[in-house]
Amino acid sequence: MLTFALRRLLMAVPTLLFISLVIFLLLELAPGDPVADMPLTIPPEVREKIRISLGLGEPMHVRYALWLYNLFVTEPSYWIDALFGTDLAQGSQRIISFQTRAPVFDTIAERMPQTLIVVGMGYVVGVLIALPIGIISAYRQYSVFDQIGTFISMVGFSVPTFVTGVMLIVVFSVWLGWFPSIYDTTLQVTDWPSFVKQMRQMVMPVFVLALYNAAQISRYMRASMLDNMTQDYVRTARAKGMSERVVILKHVLRNSMIPVVTVIALGVPGVFTGAIITENVFKVNGLGQQLLLSIQGNDAPMVLTISFIFAILIVLFNLIADLLYGLLDPRIRYD
Amino acid sequence: MPDRAAPVLDVRDLQVVFRTRGGEVHAVNSVSFHLRPGELLGVVGESGSGKSVTMMSLLGLLPSPPAEIRGGEVLLGGRDLLKLDAESLRAVRGRRIGFVFQDPMTSLNPVFTIGNQIMEPLRAHMGMDRARATERAVELLELVGIPDARRRLGDYPHQFSGGMRQRVMIAIALACDPEVLIADEPTTALDVTIQAQIIELVKDLREKLGMAIIWITHDLGVIAGIADRVMVMYGGQVVEQGPVRALFADPRHPYTRALLQTIPALRGQRDRRLRVIEGQPPILSASPSACSFCPRCGHASNRCRVENPQRLPHDGLPTGQGHDSACHWAHSAEPAHA
């Protein structure tokens, strides 16, 4: 298992390098100019100087190599410096955003908590409600519960999050006034009232994302349970005199979880990438929203770095899904 | 074999119906049989004759819906299993009646160890703690002839061969010392040498433990070697029943005769083609009002098409005790049996 994991990690290196190159070239080929947003009163020769000061005077391959070097050498040395108080970086150039002129990773570090709290919570809640719904729907197939579950899943899956999000804002913020429609990032949770306030502003984005995720995962869970409930070993378990609880929650569930856990693990990178729209609807200034802003502003270093982080997450969670599969199913061996 | 001992299992007039979209299917029609302590009853018939459904319905193992038990009694030690609530029925399953299923490849849960699966009934029914259940599990695996039993408790089903898995299944069924073991085609999915080993094992275990066995098969050859009594089923009914010698020496029902003729002879001349029984077993949409075998029977008369034959004895003993069959032709051709 360990050798398998190591081998896969090594194989991920060329994959990720290739992905980064593709993203870089795409951004390079895309039309747009980082100084285009600047006032028209700036004379062309000053514009050109700004461009050169951003490093755009260098040829493509130099810029790519510099970005790689910064990402893998300079940035980690800054992190180590911050952790242990060393001075490895010695003030060398970091990856700088074209738009804000601030280090890209500082912006990412500012934005990450909102994304993790809101979007991550949406995923966790989604999974937690999807599993029991899937189990009960399968056990009571075609019951009223199952029919309602199927209907809600269909709605949750087919109605886009920007529709459910806006609907929630109209009903609960505009009409009822229960929840704020804009997520306030400056809110510090220090005491009970501020905690309640934080919860209230999280309710709607979390609900929108949870509905979407739960719709998908509950269907997987239900299908997987149904597949396993008709297996021979279930009959064996019943013939041994096991209670329905043991039959369903031990024998069937353990087998049904194998594919579902894989799906859940593969969905984790989506926590970071897939919530761009929801973040924008609720004005949560997370990573997704930043990515959109940076794309609009032709901020190549920011777009490249965020996209590359997404790529790392996707590759990593693919590996985790594979490893989980091996842990859950004794028939799978990695050697 | 104690001949007149009170039966440990007594099934009377059992009726099972499946409700499907296309209407009702009468899978078991008034089946009655009994099982004496220590006896091995062979149940024979083609696929679809209702053998498995009958046995599964005894313990409520059929999914309901679509299955529905319409009537009858299943007396285990005098108590009617069909009247028990789910909780009490569960206490009978695996504790007093053990089940071995056909396909050992799929009948064990692939993600739990063999030890876990053997110990489950021990802990649920016998209230054993982990240590005692482990000891008993080792004992059981040794009993069914699995070498290196203690170490193998931690193995998963896929680490066992087909024959070994069936041994494990038998160990699970025998875990709580049941009075009755129901083996539903336990050797069908195995190759011939393994089949012979499993049959030997069951014979051996029966001598050691003395439980009564119901052995479902469509292989008459197997039955001839191990059974005390044989029950032939067709169309969800018992068509012939009797001691194994009497039934093989003197089969009365045309279906039994036809079945016996489908066995290939291993010795002597093989000059004639193997006989086949043309056609398919029926799917009954109502309880039978005619002999269900008559479309395939060479002896069918008009009476067979309008009246479902009753089981009548051939040797003067009460029906079920001796040799009996349900056939108009068999009883009219030789009226001198009484």
From TrEMBL, chain A:
Family annotation (InterPro entries): BPD_transp_1_N, MetI-like, MetI-like_sf
Bilayer topology term: Multi-pass membrane protein
Pfam families: BPD_transp_1, BPD_transp_1_N
Domain of life per record: Bacteria
UniProt keyword Glycoprotein, yes or no: no
Keyword hit for Transmembrane helix: yes
Name of this protein: ABC transporter permease
Lineage: Bacteria, Pseudomonadati, Pseudomonadota, Alphaproteobacteria, Rhodobacterales
TrEMBL record, chain B:
Signal peptide annotation: none
Recorded superkingdom: Bacteria
Gene Ontology biological process terms, A to Z: peptide transport; transmembrane transport
Region (Disordered): 315-338
GO molecular function annotations of the record: ATP binding; ATP hydrolysis activity
Topology of this chain in the membrane: Peripheral membrane protein
SMART domains for this protein: AAA
Subcellular location, principal: membrane
GO cellular component, one term: plasma membrane
InterPro entries: AAA+_ATPase, ABC_Ni/Peptide_Import, ABC_transporter-like_ATP-bd, ABC_transporter-like_CS, Oligopep_ABC_C, P-loop_NTPase
Keywords linked to the UniProt accession: ATP-binding, Cell membrane, Membrane, Nucleotide-binding, Transport
Segments forming domain ABC transporter: 11-260
Intracellular or extracellular location(s): Cell inner membrane
NCBIfam families recorded: oligo_HPY (TIGR01727)
PANTHER family in the record: DIPEPTIDE TRANSPORT ATP-BINDING PROTEIN DPPD (PTHR43297:SF2), OLIGOPEPTIDE TRANSPORT ATP-BINDING PROTEIN APPD (PTHR43297)
The family this protein is said to belong to: Belongs to the ABC transporter superfamily.
Protein name: ABC transporter ATP-binding protein
Source organism per UniProt: Szabonella alba
